[in-house]
Amino acid sequence: MATFPILMVRVTLESPSTQDLADWAIKLLDGLGYTVSPKQRAPETPQQLATRLNLSRRLILRRLAHPGCPQVRVVHSQGGRVSLIFATPEFEAFLKRPLRGADG
């Protein structure tokens, strides 16, 4: 049976801000070959997203079908309806801005 040495490292970090500490940790993990991605918002139903953004559910569903809609992850039910939306900041900005020559 192989035995492995036990390695314990204790690190104490001081940082003027949480963002500086996060930047340091991301650089460290990147240097070790890991990838760190931004935190994703939890998926929402079209109605939850509409309520949060103070928009109509119908407008959100129409904008999802628009050719200029940014890429956003959507989960469909077995019947083909949109059941969950993983909204991104780009998608939310697209929903809020008026479209040229259209009412939504």
Using brief descriptors, characterize the structure shown.
2 strands; 9% strand; 104 residues; 37% helix; elongated; two-stranded antiparallel sheet; mainly alpha
How does the major sheet shape up? 2 strands, antiparallel
Strand content: 5-15%
Distance between the termini: 68 Å
What global shape is seen? elongated
Q: What proportion of the residues is helical, as a percent range? A: 25-40%
- Ranges where pLDDT stays below 50 over 5 or more residues in a row are none
Spell the H/E element sequence. Answer: HHHEEH
Count of alpha/pi helices: 4
Q: What is the C-alpha radius of gyration, as a whole number of Å?
A: 22 Å
Task: Identify the strand order in the major beta sheet.
Answer: 1-2
Secondary-structure class: mainly alpha
Total beta strand runs: 2
Mean pLDDT: 89
